[in-house]
Specification:
- This protein has about 300 residues and is of the alpha/beta class.
- It has a 5-stranded parallel sheet with strand order 1-4-7-10-13. A 5-stranded parallel sheet has the order 3-6-9-12-14.
- Helix 3 runs antiparallel to helix 4 and helix 3 packs across helix 9.
- The longest helix is centred in the N-terminal third of the chain and has 26 residues.
- It is globular and about 75 Å long.
- The mean pLDDT is about 90.
Length: about 300
């Protein structure tokens, strides 16, 4: 046994040397200069859970909330959220800086201000989410109560995560918004990029397989069904063969639009107000206001 302990020592050392070759790690290794924080998947999950508790008291987290202790419970949860979110916002801000350029005191000061403004926005986010829940309830005959929609429907969780993530993205926080929406993606099968701009009374029915790209713009009173993709067509490359980023490349959806299951809408096209896009259809040209865009019926022989 002792003779075999180091029988592969040379091969192991060679492998370690290859794995530690800085020149070959390229973007596969996140270098840290010293004590700058890293975003934590586990803590982000806790932050999302706390936000759900604050936005929907009694549905998530503590089950013994009532009219007598509500303000006390929310106060405690806000204090927890402030401490946790500050640390993660600072970690997000540090994440995209060169490892030797992180001014930790400045980062924490900025993180404190972003966190404070985020918490101040929670009442407005609740009002927006109330409209979303109302839209989902009114749009689904199978929904029996608002409570059922909040407690059971995956679309509520996905839209909640999106709206939280979008707030952080607008505030200039890197990496965390994408972590939050990808958690909802894993949990619900609904993939909404935090950069998308989505109006009021937004409803997703069923939801599995829905994809909404980063530069998508969605108006008010829009309803989409499972399997819908609001995506981009093939994108341009620069002179070095790299994809050109930061350009609008996803659809603009107007107000009062319905998009049925498995519709694929691609490119920077417009779907006008009051339009209906049928299921299982590929759309790459504008849809006029009020138009019903459906699959063409096969012609008779």
């Amino acid at each position: 046994m002792g003779d075999n302990t180091y029988s592969n020592e040379a091969e192991l050392k060679a492998t370690v040397h290859k794995l530690a070759d800085v020149a070959k790690t390229q973007r596969m290794c996140h270098m840290r200069y010293g004590s700058e924080p890293l975003p934590s998947q586990d803590m982000i999950k806790q932050i999302v859970a706390l936000c759900r508790e604050l936005l929907f008291p009694g549905f998530f987290g503590m089950g013994n909330v009532n009219s007598y202790n509500l303000e006390y419970v929310i106060g405690l949860q806000c204090e927890r959220l402030k401490a946790m979110l500050e640390s993660q916002v600072a970690a997000g801000l540090a994440f995209e800086l060169p490892c030797d350029k992180a001014d930790l005191s400045g980062l924490y000061s900025k993180a404190e201000e972003i966190t404070r403004q985020f918490i101040y926005r929670l009442p407005e986010l609740r009002r927006v989410l109330h409209d979303d829940v109302e839209a989902i309830y009114n749009g689904d005959p199978a929904a029996t109560t608002y409570e059922e929609v909040i407690y059971c429907y995956p679309s509520v969780k996905a839209i909640t995560n999106y709206r939280l993530a979008h707030e952080l993205l607008v505030a200039g926080v890197p990496i965390l918004p994408r972590m939050i929406t990808e958690m909802a993606h894993s949990e619900t099968g609904i993939d909404i990029h935090p950069g998308a701009r989505i109006g009021r009374h937004f409803a997703i029915d069923h939801g599995t397989g829905v994809v909404i790209g980063a530069t998508t713009i969605i108006g008010d009173n829009v309803k989409i069904y499972q399997g819908v993709t609001l995506g981009a067509r093939s994108f341009a490359l620069d002179d070095n063969g790299n994809p050109v980023k930061g350009v609008p490349r996803h659809p603009i959806i107007g107000n009062n639009v319905v998009i049925y299951s498995n519709a694929t809408i691609l490119g920077r096209i417009h779907v006008g107000d009051d339009a209906v896009v049928g299921g299982n259809i590929w759309v790459t040209t504008d849809v006029a206001p009020g138009e019903h865009r459906v699959q063409a019926k096969p012609s008779k022989a």
